[in-house]
Amino acid sequence: MFNDNYIAMKKLSVVLFVVLFLAVAVLYFFQFSGIKHMSESGKSENTSAAPAGGIVFVNIDSIIFNFDMYADRREELLKKQQNADAELNSKGNQYQTGVKDYQDKVNKGLITRANAAQIEQALLQQQQDLVALRDKLQANLVEEEQVMNRQVMEYITKYLEENKSEYNYQFILGKSFGSVVLYSNTSLEITKRVLDGLNKKYQSEKK
Known about the structure:
Layout: H1 2-25, E1 54-59, H2 60-66, H3 68-107, H4 113-162, E2 169-175, H5 191-206
Helix pairs in contact: 1-4, 2-5, 3-4
């Protein structure tokens, strides 16, 4: 159950991440020089610079899933999720062993009713503790994922601000399936250029 809930939350987090991107990075004012555009598939896009005061866009999904920082942070989060699963499974196995031992003793008449009542109460408390632990671990992972998304978003927006001299646009829109950007000319896409710059900066900082 814990794993299924977390998988569902991971899917939801991608949607929330897109919304976060749109909310924070829809419009950024830049005054830059022209750049050569490359499409996400690696083919050259229209190399003519956008007009001064123009609008360009990036594909949010491509930025997210191909950004090395996002991949690294997701890997870290996955390890924490696996550790949480292991902890919960270990305590769950202990609880199941206790229940089985209790049932075996009751069936064989090896404990008094008073002792049985005490064991039942202890097992009930153990069960409640397991539920509380599951909820706590799940909440911690959700919070860490939200923080991770904000950290990645902050990195992207800071990169755009710090490297504005490389661009020649007043607005950068974030496009994704279902976003408010209903149509965009592919010649205005700068996804690959931004993604390459992000990964280059991030990898240089990791060394």
